[in-house]
Design goal:
It contains 17 helices and 6 strands. The protein has 430 residues and is mostly helical. It folds into 2 domains: 315 residues, Fumarase C, Chain A, domain 2, CATH 1.20.200; 61 residues, Orthogonal Bundle (Ribonucleotide Reductase Protein R1, domain 1).
Amino acid sequence: MIERYSRKQCADIWTNESKYKIWLEVELAACEAYAEIGKIPKSALENIKSKAAFDTKRVDEIEAVVKHDVIAFLTAVKEKVGEDARFIHMGLTSSDVLDTAFAIQLVKAGKIILDDIDTLLKVLKEKAFKYKNLPMIGRTHGIHAEPITFGLKFVSWYEEMKRNKKRFEQAVENVRYGKIKGAVGTYGNIDPSVEKYVCKKLGLNVEPYSTQVIARDRHAEYFSALAILAGGIERIALEIRHLQRTEVREAEEYFTEGQKGSSAMPHKRNPILSENLTGLSRVVRSYLISALENIPLWHERDISHSSVERIIAPDATTLIDFMLYRVTWLVDNLVVHEDRMKINLDITKGLYDSEKVMLALINKGVSREDAYAIIQRSAFTAFDSNTDFVDVLLRDNKVSQLLTKNELQNMLDINSHFKYIDYIYQQVFG
């Protein structure tokens, strides 16, 4: 069992302690901006910065009475600061703090998730090259098709994860926006310079225009990227589940020392990690619907989005963080049965070369329709009688007239399916 990567958890970003800390950073940055334009005395600013603090338990006690989290927070801070606390939150509305802090939280979570993706990409690339030349049967509709290499599965996942990374990077940048615009977004009681100062200090862009809240299409894009990423993780998990089926058994999850598969059947080794990832992917995708529903709000703002985001933001980011860690471990420790791949590759006794023979007949002057009918007839006969495909083909008068046994055997070299493998790897990995 291999363990080669550490983990920072998104869950830490969403604790009340972390949230209030970011709120305080927003409020202090606003105070600094006010001091820059002479609206807060320098002495008051220094007092605020030296004394401003909060006690999470005290915030909760106050909120139980006032039923407003930002007011409860400000009251708790005021108790620490004293008289100069009158300058805190001056001209701001709650959403100035909430939306700006929310952007910071989403960006922080995004950084962890992007690091997770990078780790997964590294493992996928390693596996792609390790199994670059390991033949296996390709399947479409769950039915044997033509040969591929096992490495190509990892290539496919790697390329998809590259897109997921790019998509999510864009979503993170599009949610990296703060706003300090006041009650309805008009700067009615605040100078725009305060907003510029706060956003610059906190590493955010200034939202060009907002109502009381930043429009939720930005956030919907973020959750959309997470939902698509979850689908990509599930695609890996689902493939491993299929490959682990008893009838296939070409690859399987690492079974740790002392692990049990079934309470009733001691022989079972079930793909529980992959199944877990499949289920969690459904949860993350479901949150996208809620994020999309948050886009239309009443007039300059209502509060219907708030309760939704308190659930989906911590859950979705924490789940994706966990899922990426789990799928990376799963891929890194995957048990591969090369002998089963060889057995399964030979099950149809050469039928995977049916297209090659059909094209050979076409090159000999047979129409595509006739060539297809000839090869299909021979293929079905070979499959139903469990006979070598070449032997059945040679018994067909039309085929034997046009192709010799030697031509057929030379044509049906499995390596001919892989002549462009290096090209594919060059396209993906450079």
